[in-house]
């Protein structure tokens, strides 16, 4: 159909989305590498095994979180081949089982559940078997003699490992893409051949195959086929599920000289993202034509001039920031300290429709916990000792119509997390001491340098709040992972430093640039700015040499801090002094308010002011 198939293949393989083209008969003409990656067609990692079938006497281990779904339509009846004759097992149940094919004398071992979560850990025919269905991590793990086979899932999946009945070696295991390869559990238990893996794997060429040989008869694939045949239908960015993978799809008919010649399906995989967050479907995976993308790049360079660098990582950050500015979804900015999370949040606000409205910055880690609630939500007059008679509006009210930026959100206490969740759900709240519900129209941007998923496991961050704020995540990579941007950053930062200090413009020598490139940058861009400012002050000429760059101060400070151990008394004094100073600052110097917030008596409070020389 195409005059230059090799050129078309090279072009489509460069695309970041899966790209599939079928002709009017449903035969696949183009199936790019990204589509193969999404549906697991190129997945040959793990141990090697040859092609074959399941035979009598083979040991079969199964982990299935929803019987009958995304497992080849496995039925309770089919489990009888493993010796499982349990009429209580129904379609939709989760099951973990191990048994021998068609050998009734060997008693199978199994567990099933209506809820989904299961663990089966047994010694079976001299093999250590461990099956774990984890509904939190959305994974199914089958471990055989300490060899692990792990599959993640979105809604449902059927996982299976088969041991040879004679050698007891692994002869088959499920991997991502088993649906495309026609290797569902039911299929293989029915005698269908499975494909080889690793060094024995042949090239799985889908070109020329019917689309229904590779993809199950889902609604999207049915529509794809119908459009190729002539149906008048197209759509962009539709959330759908193909082969058990959550995807965003764009479907377009292809005509040549007013005649239908096929259809194109563009696919982005979002199976790792929580389906319940519908807003992300609109914001993260917006597919655009080439002309629109060119226009978008121009807009991005104009709207985000402060995001410096041309590397792939930071370009992706700019792209996501632009998408976020077009949306009103909650944004979560992730990254280490010093990567520029606050700067990016301001950039998103100023590029958005809220640009003429307030941008309120809240550093959750710098405000004492007992003051933070009233700072965020305000308080009514007389709500507590030292409160203003007329009350005070909080930062959410200040941000009404605009954006509130919650920096270091991982530092919030569990009780404040619960109240914040309520605000996110209803866009309303009560002031401290108040009984009137206050509604606000505010866009929320949050940021943290913590791993919130780890914090959830520890119990210090609410899972429901995580999924509420993680609608549109943007991860800013550390500087050490994008060193190719250092030259651009220096060109941007150095003139500003010189202007601020009031000296002649200076430039870097080649050797000094190389020294920056060789450094590991634990403090990221903030550290780069400090090092450059120090170098500008040290050099007396217009050229900054490598000897003017003082690197490694953060790391050295850490070493010094680790080796210079302070007494517990010193640590307590420092913390106490800092807490009193912050309380006075946040209460605008009102000692009564600070006293009340800190929960200490008047005599004790004034003694500490004198002790720490606090004005």
From TrEMBL:
Top-level taxon of the source organism: Bacteria
Pfam families: AAA_lid_14, HTH_8, Sigma54_activat
Tagged with keyword Cytoplasm: no
Entry keyword DNA-binding: yes
GO molecular function, one term: ATP binding
Listed name of the protein: Transcriptional regulator containing PAS, AAA-type ATPase, and DNA-binding Fis domains
PAS domain mapped to chain residues: 4-45
A biological-process GO annotation: regulation of DNA-templated transcription
Keyword vocabulary terms for this entry: ATP-binding, DNA-binding, Nucleotide-binding, Transcription, Transcription regulation
Domain Sigma-54 factor interaction, chain residue ranges per copy: 307-537
PANTHER family: C4-DICARBOXYLATE TRANSPORT TRANSCRIPTIONAL REGULATORY PROTEIN DCTD, TRANSCRIPTIONAL REGULATORY PROTEIN
Cited InterPro entries: AAA+_ATPase, AAA_lid_NorR, Homeodomain-like_sf, HTH_Fis, P-loop_NTPase, PAS, Sigma_54_int, Sigma_54_int_dom_ATP-bd_1
């Amino acid at each position: 159909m195409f005059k230059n198939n090799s050129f078309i293949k090279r072009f489509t393989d460069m695309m970041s989305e899966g790209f599939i083209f079928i002709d009017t008969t449903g035969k696949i003409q183009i199936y790019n590498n990204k589509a193969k990656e999404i549906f697991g067609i190129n997945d040959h990692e793990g141990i090697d095994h040859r092609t074959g079938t399941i035979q009598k006497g083979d040991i079969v281990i199964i982990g299935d979180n929803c019987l009958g779904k995304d497992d080849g339509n496995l039925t309770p009846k089919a489990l009888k081949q493993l010796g499982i004759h349990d009429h209580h097992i129904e379609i939709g149940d989760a099951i973990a089982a191990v048994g021998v094919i068609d050998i009734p004398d060997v008693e199978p071992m199994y567990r099933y559940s209506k809820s989904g979560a299961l663990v089966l850990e047994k010694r079976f025919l001299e093999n250590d078997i461990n099956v774990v269905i984890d509904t939190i991590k959305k994974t199914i793990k089958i471990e055989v003699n300490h060899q692990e086979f792990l599959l993640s899932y979105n809604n449902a999946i059927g996982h299976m490992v088969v041991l040879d009945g004679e050698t007891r070696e692994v002869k088959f295991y499920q991997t991502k893409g088993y649906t495309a390869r026609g290797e569902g559990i039911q299929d293989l238990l029915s005698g269908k051949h499975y494909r080889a893996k690793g060094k024995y794997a042949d090239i799985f060429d889908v070109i020329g195959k019917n689309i229904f040989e590779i993809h199950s008869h889902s609604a999207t694939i049915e529509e794809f086929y119908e459009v190729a045949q002539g149906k008048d239908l197209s759509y962009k960015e539709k959330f759908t599920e193909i082969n058990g993978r959550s995807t965003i799809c764009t479907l377009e008919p292809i005509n040549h000289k007013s005649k239908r010649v096929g259809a194109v399906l563009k696919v982005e995989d979002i199976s790792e993202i929580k389906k319940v967050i519908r807003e992300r479907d609109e914001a993260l995976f917006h597919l655009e034509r080439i002309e629109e993308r060119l226009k978008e790049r121009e807009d991005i360079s104009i709207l985000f001039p402060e995001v410096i660098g041309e590397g792939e990582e930071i370009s992706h950050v700019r792209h996501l920031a632009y998408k976020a500015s077009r949306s009103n979804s909650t944004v979560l900015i992730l990254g280490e300290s010093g990567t520029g999370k606050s700067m990016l949040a301001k950039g998103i606000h100023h590029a958005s429709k809220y640009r003429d409205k307030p941008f309120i910055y809240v550093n959750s880690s710098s405000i004492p916990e007992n003051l933070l609630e009233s700072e965020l939500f305000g308080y009514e007059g007389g709500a507590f000792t030292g409160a203003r008679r007329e009350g005070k509006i909080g930062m959410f009210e200040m941000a009404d119509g605009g954006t509130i930026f919650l920096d270091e959100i991982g530092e919030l206490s569990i009780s404040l997390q619960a109240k914040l969740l309520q605000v996110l759900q209803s866009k309303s709240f009560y002031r401290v001491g108040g009984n009137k519900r206050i509604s606000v129209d505010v866009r929320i941007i949050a940021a943290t340098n913590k791993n919130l998923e780890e914090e959830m496991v520890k119990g210090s961050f609410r899972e429901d709040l995580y999924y509420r704020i993680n609608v549109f995540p943007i991860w800013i990579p550390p500087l050490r992972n994008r060193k190719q941007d250092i030259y651009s950053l220096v060109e941007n930062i150095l003139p500003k430093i010189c202007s601020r200090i009031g000296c002649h413009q200076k430039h870097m020598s080649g050797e000094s640039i190389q020294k920056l490139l060789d450094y590991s940058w634990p403090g990221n861009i903030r550290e780069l700015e400090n090092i450059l400012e120090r170098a500008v002050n040290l050099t007396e000429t217009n050229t900054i040499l490598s000897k003017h760059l003082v690197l490694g101060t953060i790391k050295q400070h850490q070493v010094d801090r680790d080796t210079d151990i302070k007494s517990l008394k010193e640590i307590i004094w420092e913390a106490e002094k800092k807490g009193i100073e912050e309380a006075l600052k946040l209460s605008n110097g009102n000692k009564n308010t600070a006293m009340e917030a800190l929960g200490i008596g008047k005599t004790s409070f004034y003694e500490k002011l004198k002790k720490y020389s606090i004005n």
